[in-house]
Design brief:
binds magnesium ion, 2 domains, UDP N-Acetylglucosamine Acyltransferase, domain 1, single chain, 32% strand, nine-stranded parallel beta sheet, alpha/beta, Spore Coat Polysaccharide Biosynthesis Protein SpsA, Chain A, 42 strands, binds uridine-diphosphate-N-acetylglucosamine, 452 residues, twelve-stranded mixed beta sheet
């Protein structure tokens, strides 16, 4: 078994991004560039990847965590110099070194795998990925000799007119024989721009009559290297399309995929329909047979089966099955709607549990509350949960009827089957089966219990 170790280059400043943020932390579909790069190489080797960091090292390290071994490139003297920083850690410790750049978020794990497999069969020291494209995007050009084999990579800054016209480009992913790589890196001359280019190693192999293999890719999107915000937007669009296509192939209907934004960590069940302008962020999961949107934002929320969410904004919430909400409803963190809850327009729920069958049809605020099954929350109900200093909780039993425009001044408990009159301001606990009215509300009647 050959040992294969990935080395991801992530030390560059990303000058062309014109940003305070290190390039590696700019996001594509909700995840930093560097996460995408990591996913592509982690899929098939058990060796812990080495990540070369430098610019914004602390922030990158904090974002990536313990899943890689970090080496520092103190001065960013080019991609060849960056790989050199991994030599101390890897020389004699691995058979193959897989080098990728952290700014290629679309590169797929199976493409990387193909690269490695090709190098395993290559008697020469390296294999690389290339792509043929009309727009050169500032990529290095692949020069081939008369026999059609790769002869060199020429960086755009060094290229003459004939080379600039070449349509075959260097993608920026390579698999090297380890011991050959470390020796070759030491031969790289300083470029006129003051950098040591990793790409110069190709010509060394050719000069020594050692075969260089190239895999020509056909998916241009996969090769996007993010150097500017224009590329970032291209990567975002390509990744979004890839994600959406994946969901559609898994049985999700999208009425208009171009306006449906789904981040990488989202899961969606079969036969769910997404209407236009739906945004699904973070760790969101949606069950089967739901209808979501149009015009809906859902972040870090878990939604069961057969739910309907129309023109609403949800964050950090849980919806069980058969919940019906919107239009214009808002769930904030800790909102938990039980099955068959109906939440209509202009409601807001935060840190509260609405049990099965609760109905809350119109403009209400429910915060820090526990509401029992089948209770009806009348239009305009407010849990007055904040006294200016602290939050207080409200507990409402089952089958309660809260009349329109009731103010529930917390801390407060309302017993099962109680009712409040329209416009009540409830400041004291209400016993079961009791009707209260007025401001402040007082009990006027013990209610008869229906025996069903
Ligand atoms: C590089 C390639 C080019 C290829 C293109 C594909 C070289 C010399 N050129 O150009 O042939 O077509 O990628 O996207 O390799 N980095 C470091 N330390 C450094 C410099 C760079 O870690 O000192 C890292 C960067 O963070 C980045 C990667 O290496 O992730 C590539 O650097 P970048 O400056 O983006 O190179 P390109 O100009 O895109
Ligand atoms: Mg780049």
């Amino acid at each position: 078994m050959l040992k294969i170790t990935p080395v991801i280059l992530a030390a560059g400043q990303g000058t062309r991004m014109k940003s305070k943020l290190p390039k590696m932390l700019h996001q594509v579909c909700g995840q930093p560039l560097i996460f995408h790069a990591l996913q592509a190489v982690q899929a098939f080797t058990s060796e812990k990847p080495v990540m070369v960091i430098g610019h914004g090292a602390e922030a990158v390290q904090a974002a990536v965590g313990e899943t890689v071994r970090f080496v520092i490139q103190a001065e960013q003297l080019g991609t060849g110099h960056a790989v050199m920083q991994a030599e101390q850690l890897l020389n004699g410790q691995t058979d193959l070194v897989l080098v990728t750049y952290g700014d290629m978020p679309l590169l797929r794990a199976d493409t990387v795998q193909k690269l490695v497999e090709t190098q395993k069969a290559n008697p020469g020291p390296l294999t690389l990925l290339t792509v043929i494209a009309e727009d050169p995007r500032g990529f290095g050009r692949i020069v081939r000799n008369a026999a059609g084999t790769v002869a060199a990579i020429v960086e755009e800054a060094q290229a003459g007119p004939a080379e600039l016209a070449i349509k075959e480009l260097n993608v920026g992913a390579y698999c090297f024989r380890s011991e050959w790589l470390w020796a070759a890196l030491k031969q790289i001359p300083l470029s006129p721009k003051g950098e040591y280019y990793l790409t110069d190693t190709v010509a060394f192999a050719v000069d020594a009559n050692l075969p260089v293999q190239a895999i020509v890719m056909d998916d241009m999107a996969e090769t996007i290297g993010v150097n500017s915000r224009v590329h970032l937007a291209e990567a975002e669009a390509a990744m979004r399309q890839r994600i959406n296509t994946g969901h559609m192939l898994n049985g999700v209907t999208m009425i208009q995929p171009e306006t449906t934004y789904i981040e990488a960590g989202v899961s969606i069940g079969r036969d769910t329909i997404l209407w236009p302008n739906t945004y699904l962020y973070g760790h969101t999961s949606i069950g089967e047979d739901c209808v979501i949107g149009p015009n809906t934002l859902i972040r870090n929320t878990k939604i069961g089966a057969r739910c309907r969410v129309l023109m609403s904004d949800l964050e950090g919430a849980v919806l069980e099955n058969d919940v019906d909400m919107g239009p214009f409803a808002r769930l904030r963190k800790g909102a938990h709607l039980g099955s068959h809850v109906h939440m209509g327009n202009f409601g807001e729920v935060k840190d509260s549990h609405l049990s099965e069958g609760v109905k809350m049809g119109h403009f209400s605020y429910i915060g820090n509350a526990e509401i029992g099954p089948n209770t009806n929350i009348g239009a305009g109900t407010i849990t007055c949960n904040y006294d200016g200093v602290k939050k207080h909780s409200t507990t409402i039993g089952e089958d309660v009827f809260i009349g329109s425009d009731t103010m529930l001044v917390a801390p407060l408990t309302i017993g099962a089957r109680a009712r409040t009159g329209a416009g009540s301001v409830v400041t004291k606990n209400v016993a079961e089966d009791t009707l209260v009215v007025g401001a402040p509300a007082r009990a006027i009647k013990k209610l008869e219990r229906s025996h069903d």
